[in-house]
Amino acid sequence: MGIMARNGFAEFLIARRAEIRPGDVGLPEGRRRRTPGLRREEVAVRAGVSADYLARLEQGRDTNPSVAVIDALADALLLRGAERHHFSLLALASGNEKGCPGSESAEEKVAETIQSILRALQPTPAFVVGRRLNVLGWNASWADFVAPLGLLDGEGQPNLAWYTFHDPAARRVLRNWSEAADTFAAALSRAKVRWPGDDSLLETIDALRRHPDFAARWKPHHVGASVSGTLHIDHPVHGPVSVPFETLQADGDQSVIVWLVDQAQSQSHGLRLVRPTAVNE
Fold first, then answer.
1. What are the tens digits of pLDDT across the range 189-200?
2. CA–CA separation, 222 vs 82, rounded Å?
3. How many CB atoms lie within 10 A of CB 81?
C-alpha cells in the first residue's frame, strides 16, 4: 500500500489506537501484547461496531461512516475538544477529497493588498506562506535577515519545511530546530485535512515523508495550531537572537508571519534590520 494510499481518517484511526494504553480505558496491560496501544477488537467493542468494519475503515476500504459511528469511535478513542473536531472533519472528508470545496491546487499568488501589508510592516520582517509552506512574498527586512541563513539560496520559491529538513544550514542556525520541525510537520498535517484534494500539497508531503526526521514527526491527528512562538537563531551576522513571531490569517490559504525583532533588539544589541522599503513580488 502506497504512502498516501490511506485517507487521513484511516491514518488517524490507526495512529490514535496505537497511542492509547489499555490502562487508559480500564483494561489490563497484559504481557502478550505484540504492539503498543489497543487492539482493533478492543476499540471495536468500545465503539459498538464489528472488528471487520473497523478494519475496513482503517484500510480505507470504507469511506462513509455515519455520524453515529464517528461519535462512537471518538468516544472509544477518548477524543475531546479540538482533536474530536479534527477527527470528525477527517471522517466527513474521507473518500471525497476531490469533491471538497477549495481542494484543488492553489495558484500561490500574493494579492496586491497583501503585498501592501508587507510594505507597510517595514522595517519589521514579515513574509507570506501558502498551504504548502512555500514562501510566496516578503519584505526587505525579512530578506536581509534570512539571506545569511541560506533560506533564499537556490532557485524557485523557498519552502520552510524543505529548508528545515533538507538544508544542513537549518540545524546549524536553528537552536530550537526540533520545535520548528514539529511546527512545520503539524502545519502540513492541518493543511492536508483542509485541502485533501490538492495534488501539489500531497506531493510535497509525500516527498518530505521520505526524510526520516519528517516521517517520525508526521502525525495525521496532530491538531496543534502554532500561530505564535519564538525562533532561537544562531545568526551568522547578528549572533544568538530569539525572535518572537505571530501568524495572521491573510487570504484564504495564505498567512502573513511577522517576526517581532523590536522585542529581540532589547536582548541583542546592534540588531538593526532597517533597509529601503521594498517587497518581493
1. 888 877 877 889
2. 10
3. 8
